[in-house]
Input
Amino acid sequence: MSERAVLPGRPRWLDAFGALGVIAMGFTVWLGLWVTPPDKFQGNLARLLYIHPAIATVALYWVGIVAAGGSLLYLWPRTRSFFWDRLAASAVEVGAMFAALTLVTGSLWGRPVWGVWWTWDARLTSTALLLLLEIGYLALRRVPAEPAVRARRCAVAALLIAIDIPIVHFSVDWWNTLHQGGTFLDPGFKIHASASMSWTFLLGFIAFSLIFVWLLGMRYQVEVLQDAVGDQELEVSLTERWSEDTELVGVGVADRDPTPGGATP
Amino acid sequence: MSYVDAGYAIALATLFVYAVGLVLRRRRWERVLRVSEAPVTQGDGVPGPGERS
Output
């Protein structure tokens, strides 16, 4: 163990992020379901687009930045700290949930618009692969190992998973896919939506980003507590082992026959 | 229930359940840590480190 888990307090800013996220989410739902007009082409189905791209953004970019960044900073000798390892692990777990939500909300939109729940489209497949890789990372993290070994192993795994992120992002450009490219903003950043739709779309991004930070902070606290309990258990087992060894040595000394050859007079 | 309602319901419910799960996990680990930090009652006859039996 090179670094003990320092128990976190309950930071105020984290609760503030949570409160702001819940408020922003409430407004997003209210605007998305009741205030914004139906889309000219998609009708009410466009309302799913106030949450689906925002969820996907978190699953792909925010999680990718935190997990890959944290892993890199852990592997870099100058910045090596279990803080980065725990942060990356927390991001991957929260990210797996967001990746699953991305697939589910996308599927709910795709069924009435494309006519299928699922298709082996490049964007969908690479996103599903991301989810599977994240689940694999979480399984790898549960494999018993020294904390430093586990952290190094997981950091390498996170960096390998990060390779999938540009693939997901550019999949709509690299392959001829069913999933459309950027429809909200064109390359010249010209917005193709009404003001209320644009603001709701933006608010959705803010709401899910705030919720992500809040969940990440909470998950990080759980990770620190788990490590602290692991440290305690290790300490207790080492103490027990030490006392057992001491006892055995004591018994060995007491039982040893003082005469050579074992013949007692 | 429409696809839109289902999408919003699933997204919000998942976030809510996950957040509650994190709070419960945090409490559980806090409890485990408190228990593991509690001093062991002496008198079981096992000597501690540095003690002689």
